[in-house]
Amino acid sequence: MSEWEHWEDWSSSTESLFPCLHELTIQYCPKLIMKLPTYLPSLTELSVHFCPKLESPLSRLPLLKELYVGECNEAVLSSGNDLTSLTKLTISGISGLIKLHEGFVQFLQGLRVLKVWECEELEYLWEDGFGSENSHSLEIRDCDQLVSLGCNLQSLQIDRCDKLERLPNGWQSLTCLEELTIRNCPKLASFPDMRNDSTDSNNLCLLEELVIYRCPSLICFPKGQLPTTLKSLSISCCENLKSLPEGMMGMCALEYLSIGGCPSLIGLPKGGLPATLKELRIWSCGRLESLPEGIMHYDSTYAAALQALVIFKCPSLTSFPRGKFPSTLERLHIGDCEHLESISEEMFHSTNNSLQSLILGRYPNLKTLPDCLNTLTDLRIVDFENLELLLPQIKKLTRLTSLFIRNCENIKTPLSQWGLSRLTSLKLLWIGGMFPDATSFSDDPHSILFPTTLTSLTLSQFQNLESLASLSLQTLTSLEQLEIQSCPKLRSILPREGLLPDTLSRLYVWLCPHLTQRYSKEEGDDWPKIAHIPRVQIL
């Protein structure tokens, strides 16, 4: 309302014109000057956006929980009147705001989440020693001049502060901080000392989670700079980062470590991994030449109890450290590592019974699967030009519940010889991008290719496949979802008997022109045969 200037208010101090109002939004009223209604006893959410002339402070709002003020005059935040119920405050684009005024902050004793965005003149949140005792989460975005923080934070996010070259002063005062996320700060080149080895128990940083994302000026960390209390460390898309802190492998609480999108990183710190580390992810580090020795167990000294190891898009890696994968490993994912040596049976403990998920993709040196993975429940093999042999290994994987094999054209063993019908735990099956000359999956009309336990089946990219009759789909009495993709010559979905399982509730067909014509809704000749299926998409 471009011309609105005054909000006439006839409320008394005890009686409101809006006694039931819970949510109020006022936006794009550039001439509004007068204050809001004096008394809104039920209001829990208030949003005021682009009212630059609004000068009066906020009214008495005893139940207000969430407040958003954006593109307004800083006078709106000059004082408060009964905001003690406020738990979430978002401030955005407030011109002239250098700090939050004491008269406003004193009513924020219940505040738990504070977000400050695009306040380019903000230098302080509040005066030192003053602030909400309960403020736990702070998100700062596009506040280039900020130099000081509050002291009662548990969570801090800093995003898109283009001029920020270092973290604000007073880091040691953040004794409650547990989570720190720094994103999109192109000039951030250094970190303060976060070590928590001080003898002063009142001056300890107890940080548990650190996320650093898209800070291209960050090149290295001085030795011993990260706190030993860290449980989770994620560093990604820092294109000029060359090294990680030397003392990092000695962090005695670290459980999760992810390093990715750092093309200048050559190596990881020497030494074993922390014994506490459960998951290690390394991805898109094009110059990384070696893996940390601690991922393999050569002896029991400082052996990490890894549960998940993920490595992909690291073309300079050539080998694993000597030793065996830890017997605690549950998930092993390797992809786009064109020079990495093949995993072999010798790399696994003979007593290994933990490995459940194996995902392999674009891994040229792997020609066959190790014959020792009988505990797998999830197997995914994608984009292999050289993989030659799945049998007899796949027949032994009787615990498999999920099998995904795509774009492995060098597998010549016919599907009828895979022995999938023996895998009586299998529920999800996806196969595609192989057998380029096959018109059918089997010549035997009575063959049983799949187990009756299947609930989801996807067939994809069989360029010459003409019929599904050999699959005996009517025998899959547990099937709930059938998906068929990119089979340009396939002419029929229905099995020889003309019926699909009664359990089928979802049918998806993509890029199969003959099927689109035959089964299109209400127009296709065979639409009545699938019309009973609750969800059908044919595109």
Give the tags:
single chain; 539 residues; mainly beta; Leucine-rich repeat, LRR (right-handed beta-alpha superhelix); 22-stranded parallel β-sheet; 22 strands; 21% strand; flat
Question: What does the model show?
Answer:
The chain is mainly beta and about 550 residues long. The chain has a domain of about 150 residues: Leucine-rich repeat, LRR (right-handed beta-alpha superhelix) (Alpha-Beta Horseshoe). The protein has a 22-stranded parallel sheet. Strand 4, helix 1 and strand 5 form a beta-alpha-beta unit. The chain starts with about 20 loop residues before the first strand and ends with a strand.
N-end to C-end Cα span: 46 Å
User: Radius of gyration over alpha carbons?
Assistant: 31 Å
Low-confidence region ranges: 128-132
The count of helical stretches stands at: 3
